[in-house]
Amino acid sequence: MIFEVFRQERRGQPFAHAGSVDAPDLEFAEAWAREQYGRRQESEALWVVPREAVREVHDFPDELNKTYHRVDGYSLKAKLKEARERAGTAAP
Amino acid sequence: MSERAQRLLELADDELILGWRDSEWTGIAPTLEEDVAFSSIAQNEIGHARALYELAARDLGTTADALAFDRSPEEYRSAPLVELRRLDWARTIARHWLYETADELRLEELKRSDDAEVAGLAAKMDREEVYHRMHAQMWADRLRGDERFEAAVDELWPYALGVLAPEQRAALAERVGREEVDAVERGEHSDELRELWNEMTMVRRSIPGATW
């Protein structure tokens, strides 16, 4: 059984995926994850999660090109230039 | 030699020799994950040995390395349990589980010691040993009832008793759920220890006095 291991490097930081361990149950997974992802003092805490418990989500269609949902879909550059000209200040 | 130094050397030698024995599984443990975990535990044991040798070395006016590598095999005070070589996995886990159970009793006593240095070091070691015990217990639980594992525990039980002082053995028998029998005592060493000693001290003996 595969368990995914997430690692928190310092208290308060978000957990990030570190890797996985192949273990017969959660108890073995914990012991093995502890040695593989914690023995060098590189972790504050671990999350050990059965892979099946993770729902993987794919495919985020944007067929109608709704660019305004995206940060890059709304360019400020032209608008900023216009505003600066109006105010009489040049770009820095 | 003071009683304290003798006691520290017993402990240090147990941890050093067991660390070496466990490290013999590096690369050939039953699964890759266990290989990494067991090698890491072996390194921890050697780390404990180092701390214990450093304490003993101060009392004896020498260095940790000299204690670990410059004594003759006869001078080691390790228990026969940790010296046994080339055990199969069932016997390795039986030894690991018996040793950690015995070591827990030994550390509990040392943590209560009036000697603040010894009590402090025992407490530090115990913080790590908790996870060795967890690892040993989970394997023992998994293998319990297995014919090879049960035979291995039978075979190693008299050796396990020999890790502890006579007055601590009844408590070990209770924890393990077995009758106390005649222990295989410290003192005599097998050829297996001499073979290990040869290997373990080879580099250091090749250039005496070298600094690395």
Radius of gyration of chain A: 23 Å
Low-pLDDT runs of 5+ residues of chain A are none
Query: What oligomeric state do the depicted chains represent?
Result: heterodimer
CATH architecture of the domain at 2-53 in chain A: Roll
For the largest interface, the chains and their residue counts are: A-B, 12 and 13 residues
- Main sheet strand line-up of chain A: 2-1-3
Provide the descriptors you would attach to this structure in a database record.
heterodimer; A: 92 residues; alpha+beta; Ubiquitin-like (UB roll); three-stranded antiparallel sheet; 2 helices; 26% helix; elongated; B: 212 residues; mainly alpha; Ferritin; 9 helices; globular
SSE blueprint:
The complex is a heterodimer of chains A (92) and B (212).
Chain A: E1 2-8, E2 16-22, H1 26-38, E3 45-50, H2 77-87
Antiparallel strand pairs in A: 1-2, 1-3
Chain B: H1 3-23, H2 32-60, H3 64-69, H4 80-83, H5 89-111, H6 116-143, H7 147-161, H8 169-176, H9 191-206
Short description:
The complex is a heterodimer of chains A (92) and B (212). Chain A is an alpha+beta fold.
Question: Describe it for me?
Answer:
- The complex is a heterodimer of chains A (92) and B (212).
- By secondary structure, chain A is an alpha+beta fold.
- Chain A has a domain at 2-53: Roll (Ubiquitin-like (UB roll)).
- Helices cover 26% and strands 22% of the residues of chain A.
- Chain A is built from two helices and three strands.
- Chain A has helices spanning 26-38, 77-87, and strands spanning 2-8, 16-22, 45-50.
- The longest helix of chain A is centred in the middle third of the chain and has 13 residues, at 26-38.
- With 212 residues, chain B is mostly helical.
- Chain B has a single domain (3-206), classed as Up-down Bundle (Ferritin).
- Chain B has helices at 3-23, 32-60, 64-69, 80-83, 89-111, 116-143, 147-161, 169-176, 191-206.
- The longest helix of chain B is centred in the N-terminal third of the chain and has 29 residues, at 32-60.
- Chain B is globular and about 50 Å long.
- The mean pLDDT of chain B is 95.
- Chain A binds chain B through residues 21-24, 27-28, 31-32, 34-36, 39, and chain B through 31-34, 36-37, 40-41, 131, 134-135, 138, 142.
